[in-house]
Amino acid sequence: MRTLDPDAWKAFIDGLIKEPDLDVVGVKEKGRRFVFAPLENASELRLDYDVTILPPKKELLPPNEDLLLFDISKPFDVLAAHDERKKVLVGVHPYDLVAINMMDEVYLGTHVDEHYEKRRQNTLIIASDILNIPPKAFCGSLGTHTVESGYDLLVTPLGDRYVVQEGTPAGTELLEKYAESRESSAEDIARVEKLREELPSRYERKLHVDKYKWSEILGENYEHPLWEENARKCLTCGTCTLVCPTCVCYDVSDEVELDLERGKRTRTWDGCLLKEFTLVGSGEIFRETPTNRYRHRYYRKGMYLPMRYGFVACVGCGRCSTQCLADIADPLDVMNVLASSSMDDPKRLPIPEVKVHGVKQQLLVPKAADITHKEQMTDIDTLYKIRLDSGEALGHKPGQFVELSIFGIGEAPISIASSPGPEPEFELLVRKIGDVTSKLDTLNVGDKVGIRGPLGNGFNIEALKGRNLLYIGGGFGLAPLRSLINYSLEHRSDFKRITVLYGCKDPSALLFKNDIDCWGCMEGVEFKATVDECMDDDSWGGNIGVITTLIPEVDIDPDTTMAIVVGPPVMYKYVIRELKQKNLPDENIIVSLERRMKCGVGKCGHCQINGVYVCLEGPVFNYADIKDLPEAF
Amino acid sequence: MAGNIDIHVEHLTRVEGHGDIFFNSKEGKVENVQWHVTEAPRFFEAMLRGKSYVHLRPITSRICGICSIGHSLASLKATEAALGVEVSEETVLLRRLALHGENMQSHVLHIGYLVVPDLFGVGSVFPIVDINKDAVVKIVGLHRLANFMSDLVCGRTTHPITLQLGGFNKVPTVAELIDLRSRLEASKPVIAGVSGLLASVKGNLPDFERETEYIGLVDDRLYALYDGVVGSTDTGLHPVDDYLSITNEYVVPQSTAKYTKHARDAYFVGALARFNLNESKLGSFGREIAGVLGMSAPIHNPFMNTYAQMVEVADSVQDSILIIDELLHRGIKGDMAKVEPRAGRGIGAVEVPRGILFHDYTIDGIGNCRKANCIIPTNQNHANIQRDLEELSPGLVEKPEKDIELTLEMLVRAYDPCISCSTHYTKVHFV
Amino acid sequence: MKPKVAFFDFSSCEGCQLQVVNLEEKVLDLVDIVEVVSFREAMKEHSDNYDIAIIEGSIMRPMDEERLKKIRHNARILVALGACACIGGVNKLRNKWSVDDVKAEVYGNADLDGNPYFDALPTRAIDEVVAVDAYIPGCPINKNEFSRVVTGLAVGRKPKLPTYPVCVECKKNENVCVFEMGQFCLGPITRAGCDAICPTNGEGCDGCRGFLEDLRVNAMKDVLRHYGVTMDQMMKRFNLYNYKREGY
User: Fold this and answer.
1) Does C157 touch chain A (CB under 8 A)?
2) Residue B97 placed within a domain
3) Residue B36 and which of A164, A300, B300, B385 are 20 to 30 A apart at CA?
4) Contact status of A258 with chain C (Cβ, < 8 Å)
5) B252: domain range?
6) Do B398 and B18 touch, CB atoms closer than 8 A?
7) Does C156 touch chain A (CB under 8 A)?
8) Is A291 exposed, middle or buried (0-12, 13-18, 19+ CB in 10 A)?
């Protein structure tokens, strides 16, 4: 440890500020509160602060950030926008540092987010010990009041001197270059340790339950009346998620300048409390009631993130409870109440184990691709053949999807409808529902789009080998299913009997008529179609009725048959009920679910079904793994 | 060419609000010329009844999009007078700065976007980009500076946010004021450039004079905008509280806006009135620009109102710099006077870009407004516009129809009327 | 083919159209991507041939209603500009009284019968008379939002307004909540998109952009009561811009 006199400390900070290529961001006053903001001189720095309005996460994941810059007047001109400025954060409290480390796990683990990575690499952190405690904080109960690592330097202001602990070589270098310090005396070190030891007792608010038990307690209280009681008072204003150091979800949108040429894709903080967080193109909202949204936040912090990453995503800073106008956001209050109760029916809300599938490119920058073929199938559905500019095959598995970009409009997740192969073209069936899909409809062969992918987990082919396959496709669900159907037909000998059941609204809504005709004629393939309704003058000779009407007639051997079901959200409940009537075990039912997608790689948070990311653990799921998730169906 | 001419300009363009001009002549003789105000009445004073004293400013601000700062200040002054609130010197300085920003913004808009097209013979400012791009760039730059200044002091130029009863709830920082000061200094040559341009097309203004009464705020030290007593070129100085005896509103059927009169049957308010009353109080820069434009009081050509506005832009820039220097010298503290509701009546008078504005409120013991009266500059000008049209028309009757129409339009435009403001009246006086 | 755009105003303060002019140099960009065929406040030219009609102001009189219906007939897309057009704004404050009452208060006994200029009806927002395709709310509008909606229309994107409250933008600006400073604010129930300009400048939100469709009004009332706001104060603030809006 090194010790600096107050003047030396001031000179150190001023020295950093004077560096032209270095931004110094530290804690200063704003009205009666504190914020992280650029420092003009060292006397502005207030290391005696209790807590800032927004956590320092805003310096690493800004509220608004440019991701891509593009020019829509040119065929495909897109650049990743990276923040190259070097920065040093001064005054980060231990609990915020713990939160930053959690954010690192999300953004740098599994798939690396390059924008975050660049900024993180360019940022040095001078943490500081807690001197003053805000009324609502409870760091002492969570062990986040001190840290042992994660900082470049850690300063303990003792009033008459500053003791600095070096955490990394970069920190040491910074200290040596800009500061005059001496070796800390034993007395200095003792004072620092005493300050840290006394901290937990200074926290007035105490948790009555160990944080590692939160998961279990939450699992036992999914239906506790507290959720609805509190949600009634909830303004769903999003404040709690915006001020939270461990909330890192974001939304993405495109903007174009008035000259209709230059534009950018930006990401901006989003929160699960807001109504449209789970809105999809067809208008469905998957977490609609305030109760569900209010509850979700606690489960994400206390159960889902711990299950996924191993850390409890609350650091006890007290920001949410201080700034919630309705005074219902306090995790301490909620957990203390739940700890002393438990409902009868504990819920398992597991996250399925999956092999992490690598993403083969820059995470957020789309690759250029051409439309090589466009074929209208129905009034609202069009089949496109897409070919990457690079000429290489997409390399996808059946069941995966791509994120299709039209710069200036946005991005949409589209299931891949063709089976994988060496050829560079792949097929997408697109329904005209929202902005991106409507704009795509106006494009033609030769026009360019952006492609990110393949994303998602795809079907587990190994589990299907040697089995009878029962495909059940409802409406648009036939598109991703077709990828697997054709794959299984191309590798016919790997599978036993193949049955395809397909239902849609009416004969004019039929998709993939050519494939359907083929399947109907193949040996060892049984194909049945049905329409919900049919006008008299149609030449439809097939079944009329919803898709479930086809299932009873199918001969199924429950032990050797795998059912693969894809269709609109409302369909699953009924189809699965019919399959259970046939005694099909849960683990023999495979589904593919849709949710709102933005990043497609498990960071933006929109696609969550309880703790499960549809873009990582899905979109293909084994029914046994998710049947207990309340948000699944 | 004598003959029968019938002109109806419906919804005059390049003015704020809706008004029509009618002109009929038969065989070389003017039969009828009328200025019709057709704007839908919005009944603002009726709306203020029963409203809490804290809401009078946000509501009256919405009377006008261009002079919302002026309305806000008149409203605050009237409410503060009614409640017996005294604001600090710092607040007055900042309010004067806000008013300068508005004056500049409105005048530049009027000069550059609304009047200059006529002087160049085009329909709007957009084609001027091809004729004289530099002029447009200068005008847009001045407009941007004025907006920047108002944004800084008021939070937002249209419907300001920081102007509150008793003071400002957010004040500019020292760094921001220093930055503003340097921008204002830099604007001086631009103003000189635009003035030079105006001087060069001065000949395109009709050569017309009609002496009338000119009314505006007068102060013994400053070119009055924020504070003063009511001055008239005919009758001298009057206390603000006597405003009703000056304005004397009355209804006419062709106008949803009322007319006013004082010593004569009509009077003029606005930049030209202020110039005629207060030329001696102009600073050196204002005087310089007046010189460039060949102006010296008294001026009785209403078309010169636009040019008087240019002089005021210059004066506002210089006065703003002085105010900033004063604020920097004193330090900015963010004073806020205590405001408590009580019964009372108060009158606030302020010069807004188009002339003198009065707000008069009567407030009851629990702070609700019982009566309100707002007299807008433009409706004080309607009678004068009518008289000018009547005097101007005989001289035009020999000209081609297109020219008559243009000249009549230019006359109304010269007044920079803010018609939608002027159509929400207050108490009626029958005369 | 550049879409043809026309601006119209009814009963308003014209502050919203002024924000379009306040785009400063960007106005030149704007007139590059659309053809402005009518903008009475700034242009002499006028044409009845337009694709997009942008309308500021509320409807007060039968003659205004007629004019609006004609515009709706001519336009492919109709955009309501500003609070007066979108939700009625301050113009609706007078709906508290009868039309005869306000006329008497303002014009006294003047004989105005049969004079169409003075013929008044209760104030209505534009969509209470004709169908509206896009809204740009606020008093005044936020000129960046105007840019976004217009460029959106130009590239073929349906304009979409935020469905979350002002608090989101206020927190992103890291403002000290005005409730902490002794004021009260309607931000939690008001539509965002203004970048929380009023709280950022120290004044609580008045709701000028209109309350959200998903109106958590009971939760809001609880909060206001907790902060000592009386029912009278609450209703006066609610009614400033959102007079008689359903839900409370």
Assistant:
1) yes
2) yes
3) B300
4) yes
5) 44-422
6) no
7) yes
8) middle
